[in-house]
Design goal:
Elements: E1 9-11, E2 14-16, E3 21-26, E4 39-45, E5 52-57, H1 64-75, E6 85-89, H2 94-99, H3 122-133, E7 140-147, E8 151-159, H4 164-173, E9 177-180, H5 188-194, E10 198-206, H6 212-228, E11 246-248, E12 251-255, E13 260-264, E14 271-272, E15 277-282, E16 289-293, E17 298-304, E18 308-309, E19 314-319
Parallel strand pairs: 5-6, 5-7, 7-10, 8-9, 9-11
Antiparallel strand pairs: 1-2, 3-4, 4-6, 8-10, 8-17, 12-19, 13-15, 13-18, 14-17, 15-16, 17-19
Length: 329
């Protein structure tokens, strides 16, 4: 049953009545200049009761592609629901966004400190407020991420294994890939699950980059999800579907066997066969060139696009072998 079966919603101490639209600001702390740093929370509520859905991005401040997806949900009025309530937080970690940084100013990864503490570190305090002042009323959520550093993720949804309801929601979202991925201790997703929030985690693109093809996948998937929940703005049509999502249960990283300059052959998001040359590593002086080959048949769901790699660096993430999903969200 949806948590929103009452006439009013209280978010950040403000009452949101049926049919109301509000922009609230989370103000947890100031910059060291004493300047206030506001995190806009954009709320649209239908006059017709229904579920509460959260679309959030930028929990890592340098993952801009998710910010673009939520921005489009707002500008295209996808966030104006037929029923229920839609909450959009385009930038959760405004501190990191300002600094083009993954982390909070205290050096902590916000997505590792949940459920947080009201009197803990800056990141921990923010996690506590998000979890206690917004998430208790949320029924469904999509949290948008991108690959860290130079890692480029093919568009994918991540869900925990053995959860039939999340599997159904992932089918509806219909990203090109769906990965079974256990919750990480301290993550937003893990703490939200304990509050019975059905959360899909979207990964796509890389940090400090906007990729419109990835953004389209996120926007269209969100529209399909809202349509399934009976919430899509009646003036809009659900995003066009493509082939069914490819589910990946096992995957592993291919690591560099030597240090050098890395040349990628642009295979991310494609199926390759064992022995296929994915790229090569060379030295700056033209003395050697080492091929990077696929160890098995599988889908390349992530590639490290850094031009310089060191021995042991993870450079490709491939499906189809044991070892689990090593990439952090």
């Amino acid at each position: 049953m949806a948590k929103s079966k009452h006439k009013s919603l209280i978010i950040l101490g403000e009452e949101i009545l049926p049919g109301e639209s509000k922009i609230l600001n989370m103000e947890i702390a100031k910059l060291h200049t004493t300047t206030k740093l506001k995190i806009p929370v954009i709320i649209e509520r239908s006059k017709i009761d229904g579920p509460v859905v959260l679309f959030s991005a930028g929990i890592h401040g340098d993952e801009i592609n998710g910010v673009e997806i939520v921005r489009q949900l707002i500008t295209k009025k996808i966030n104006k629901p037929k029923t229920g309530t839609i909450i959009c937080i385009p930038i959760v970690n405004m501190f990191g966004f300002v600094n083009k940084s993954r982390d909070f100013p205290d050096g902590r990864d916000l997505n590792r400190v949940f459920p947080g503490s009201k009197s803990g570190s800056l990141a921990s305090r923010f996690a506590w407020h998000l979890l206690n002042e917004i998430m208790p009323i949320v029924d469904y959520a999509v949290d948008f991420h991108a690959g860290g550093a130079s890692r480029f993720n093919a568009p994918q949804i991540r869900i925990v294994p053995n959860n039939a309801e999340l599997k159904k929601l992932a089918d509806v979202f219909n990203a090109p890939y769906t990965l079974y991925s256990k919750n990480i201790v301290g993550s937003f997703r893990a703490s939200s699950e304990k509050l019975n929030v059905k959360m899909l985690l979207f990964e796509g693109g890389k940090s400090l980059d906007i990729n419109m093809a990835i953004a389209d996948e996120g926007v269209n998937g969100s529209m399909r999800l809202l349509n399934y929940l009976g919430m899509l703005n009646p003036k809009l049509k659900a995003g066009q579907t493509h082939q069914k999502s490819i589910y990946i249960e096992k995957s592993t990283w291919i690591r560099a066997k030597t240090s050098g300059l890395f040349h990628d052959h642009n295979t991310v998001g494609t199926f390759v066969t064992k022995g296929f040359v994915l790229g090569f590593i060379t030295d700056p002086f033209g003395k050697f060139q080492q091929k990077v080959k696929a160890p098995n048949d599988g889908y390349i769901i992530n590639a490290n696009l850094s031009p310089i790699v060191y021995e042991g660096d993870a450079i490709y993430h491939i499906s189809g072998v044991s070892g689990g999903n090593e990439e952090s969200e």
